[in-house]
Amino acid sequence: MSIISCTTLFFWEYPIEEIADIFKSVGLKSMEFFPENPEFWDKRFDEDYLKEIKSILSKFYLTIHAPYIELNPSSTNPYIQEATIKETLWAIDLANFLGAEVLTIHPGKRPTKRPPTMEEYEKFYHYLDVCIPYAEEKSVTLSLENMPKLVNYICHSVEEIKQIIERYRIGLTLDFAHAKENAERFVEELHEYIKNTHISGVCDGREHYPLYHSQIDFSPYIKKLVDYGYKGSLVIEINDLNYNKELSKEEKISELLKEIEYLEKLI
């Protein structure tokens, strides 16, 4: 059976130990760990801190999201591309250290808002060529996330993602809100490749709202994925910036509980 999870990014302003306590208090047994949460990011090379975090997170089934803020594997700036590779290799080591089998990665994009050229694709392929063997060595499965359909983004269509994940033999992290109206096709045609999912709603064309508010009803497709035998995480991925105010800790917990209840009834 699939496991309901949540990204630590929703509670980005809190220490990891406090986030873990929140997750336990609402009954979550799974977590998608986002290492760019400020506290962890500042201390990520502190060995004593890492041992403490490993002990805390060992209570959860973990998936990890590779760093992506300010990064781009297809950047025209070679230093940014190099940094993206280094951070992904570090994230693979982190996944191995914490015992997470699945690491979600972002595809590349053209830095300017113009259609990607072969140059961007070649750089993305180089990124995969470097990172995949290292992930295999560390027994970590790389899982490529589908992107929203924007002019400069790589990997937003079913056809393109299928070609890449079959060529490189990697997994798919299906982000339902990114897929929007194509969610059914993603589930129907790529369900056998899906290793992880991101669950949220869409309002006025924008992603990562609460699922129960979504103007696109993803529930039939989530249920269909589960019916296909998907046993991975259903990661709740709400963006707190989509609210018209800053949410308190209690308000975030309340929103999380509503999402958990919605998913529990669905699956």
Task: Give your account of this protein's structure.
It is a single chain. This protein is of the alpha/beta class and 267 residues long. The protein has one domain: Alpha-Beta Barrel (TIM Barrel), CATH 3.20.20.150. It contains 10 helices and 10 strands. The strands form 2 sheets. Strands 1-10-7-6-5-4-3-2 form an 8-stranded parallel β-sheet. A two-stranded antiparallel ribbon has the order 8-9. It is globular and about 45 Å long. The N and C termini lie close together (9 Å). The mean pLDDT is 96.
Note the topology.
Elements: E1 3-6, H1 16-25, E2 30-33, H2 38-43, H3 47-57, E3 61-65, H4 78-98, E4 102-105, H5 118-137, E5 141-145, H6 158-168, E6 171-175, H7 176-179, H8 183-190, E7 194-199, E8 201-203, E9 206-209, H9 219-227, E10 233-236, H10 249-266
Parallel strand pairs: 1-10, 2-3, 3-4, 4-5, 5-6, 6-7, 7-10
Antiparallel strand pairs: 8-9
Helix pairs in contact: 4-5, 8-9
